[in-house]
Design brief:
The structure is a single chain. The chain has 113 residues and is mainly alpha-helical. It has two domains: 57 residues, no CATH class; 42 residues. The protein is built from three helices and two strands; from the N terminus they run αββαα. The protein has a two-stranded antiparallel ribbon. The protein starts with a helix and ends in a 5-residue tail after the last helix.
């Protein structure tokens, strides 16, 4: 099922990305100086326009992933605390079970020996 869903979603995404790449292959300079666009102090390029599009997409995905990771920090912290507490309770149960087995074996042992 996952494989089919991956093809259903992935194939159109790849098709759109290829179409964007083919339609936007003209070289463009990215000017980062809004005060002198004719003679910029800072500019990047010329590179094909689709590279700028894909770079912006990649930076957006990375920024979104980082924002999500930071927003879920409290969930991860709570999970770590819960896991530590579960480990402590398991250890306590094992200790109590060992004590019970020890007490039961002492009660079953012959009294004269």
């Amino acid at each position: 099922m996952r494989r089919i869903l991956r093809w259903i979603v992935g194939l159109p995404v790849v098709a759109v990305l290829v179409a964007l790449g083919l339609a936007n292959d003209q070289p463009v300079s990215l000017v980062l100086d809004p005060f002198r666009p004719a003679n910029p102090a800072i500019s990047i390029g010329p590179l094909p326009f689709y590279l700028y599009l894909f770079l912006a997409l990649a930076l957006g995905v990375i920024a979104g992933g980082m924002a999500t990771w930071l927003a879920q920090a409290h969930v991860r912290r709570s999970a770590r605390r819960g896991e530590a507490e579960a480990r402590r309770w398991r250890a306590e149960v094992e200790r109590v079970n060992r004590e019970r087995q020890h007490d039961a074996s002492r009660q079953l042992a012959p009294a004269g020996r």
